[in-house]
Amino acid sequence: MKAKLLIALSLLAFNLQLYSQKSQDRQTILQFDDAYSVLRPDAPTLNVIVPMDTGIANPLFLSEVGGVSFDQIAQPANELTINSLKLNYNKNASDGNRLELFVNNKPAKVDLPDWLLVPLAKYAESPYYSCVTIFGKLNNKTLEKLVVEHKGRVINYHPAFDNTLLGIRLIYMDMLVGYTFTQELPKNKEGKYILGLKEAEPNQANNQNGAYYLIQHFNNVGSKYNQTFRSYVISDYSQDIRFNIENDKLTINSFPYFYCWRYNSDRNDYDINKVSETISSEINLQIAQLSATPGGQTPQEWMIDKLIALAKKYDGKYGFYSSGTFVDMVKLPSDSEKRQFLQNYSLESLFQMIVTTEAYMDSDSIVYLKEYSDEVSSKPDLFEAANPEVWNATVQTMCFASFFRFIKTNYPAEWSAFMDKIGTVDPEPRIFTPTAMYEKGDSEVENALRTASPQLTANGNFHFYPNPFCNFLVLNNSTEMDRVCVYGTDGKLLLQEINCPSNYRMNTSSLKPGVYILVVNERNRPPRTFNIVKK
């Protein structure tokens, strides 16, 4: 059967250069400004299912993802009663007017051009919340390490925002406070601004002035509360997102929230040695009590139970160990295997493992700077003044993602039909999003990025969901796909789509429940094959 499917695999060398020479319809961003250059080495997409409610207590999420993340579902305004809702994409209408919304059988105007509409709908459709991060990963770990060591940034995007102008706007929002180039907008290789419909070229003087007052705002808030933050997540955390129909137009009134945080150990008076001493004293007290209780739990049994509990707390939330005994124990699948593993260690080793792990957890515990965050977030006009187009795109992302999730949750049939219509839409402007940013003139990084062979994974930049699936598959790739095919296990071709955009929703409603084979073809690389299941 595989012989029938794997047709003439071409062993062409993979070109790591930022942009394919054959993709002439996509614009290139060669640098963010005079100080930073960008390239596009192979990188995974950002498939993070952690919502902010749980992410705020997760040091791994905050420190290794962070960035921009929205997960809320908007609700109607108190005065709005919805008896019916219909949604349609009219491809024959002018761009910016193609989203047709009817509430209670009355049209409601929605001003949303395709460069925003299409990725935002696909974002809301997906199970992932994180939009972008500058703490990303590359498929080639050697390149990733080199970029980071040279004070560069590795950028990852949600599948819906990869290779989109909106993805660029969101990355600029993430870096708005720390990088002066974000007061501008990026340009293509001809030196022209890459703008979406209804965007305007930046007024550099106004943006620089706005950025000055924005930084002053952060400094003033820090002085007021005598606090500094380690990082932040631009989110919809704690925001009440409401939509309404006013003068026959959809309105969604809310703004992003800057969730600012620091580690417990960022306090000036923090002393991890004192923390370790306190933990040691508590353990010794517990051991003494156990030793004085004949027939009860032994100190070894208690310490093993304690370490198993710490393993559950550590897994997926902390990352302060790169290897070692504790990590080896965490990887074991069952409590019984963990217990058997730990029984090989002395009481002294178990004791030290508990003390060290609890001390590091205390050090890395997250402190939410609520008053600081509230006041920083209370001046949306200052963020807008620093870069209006970037801020407005971020506000639209938060508001419309939450609105689309409302429709998806409450009107699933309307939503599914709407998504079927935009599945093949590839909006303009078409660009490639960079995945590595580094200081201009750093020849070591640039040469490595341009010449090193990437580590090809089974699916490279390709990602699809859900699996098992029902009536559709969402396909996300770094470039357009020449052909997407679904075969039966007997080798019979059942579905075929030609010239699919990089983000594509494939209708699979005609397939019966069972096992199928998905084959993705694109230029200059072998076909990729996946087993898929319709439930």
Low-confidence stretches: 1-24, 453-459
Strand order of the largest sheet: 9-7-2-10-13-14
Q: Portion of residues in helices? A: 25-40%
Roughly what fraction of the amino acids lie in strands?
Answer: 15-25%
Counting DSSP E segments of at least 2 residues, the number of strands comes to 22
Count of all domains:
3
Number of helices: 17
- Which outline best applies? globular
Terminal CA distance reads 22 Å
Biggest sheet descriptor: 6 strands, mixed
Radius of gyration in whole Å, from Cα? 26 Å
SS content category: alpha+beta
Mean pLDDT: 88
Give the structure's gist in a few sentences.
The protein has 535 residues and is an alpha+beta fold.
Model description:
By secondary structure, the chain is an alpha+beta fold. It folds into 3 domains: 2-10 and 465-534, Sandwich (Immunoglobulin-like); 36-265 and 369-452, no CATH class; 272-364, no CATH class. The protein is 36% helix and 20% strand. It has 17 helices and 22 strands. The chain has helices at residues 2-5, 52-55, 59-64, 114-125, 141-149, 165-174, 204-225, 272-291, 299-314, 325-331, 335-342, 347-364, 370-377, 380-386, 388-410, 412-422, 443-451, and strands at 36-39, 68-69, 75-76, 85-89, 99-103, 106-108, 130-133, 153-154, 156-157, 231-235, 242-246, 249-253, 257-263, 366-368, 436-439, 463-465, 472-476, 481-488, 493-500, 503-507, 514-522, 525-534. The strands form 6 sheets. A 6-stranded mixed sheet has the order 9-7-2-10-13-14. Strands 19-18-21-22 form a 4-stranded antiparallel sheet, with no helix packed on it.
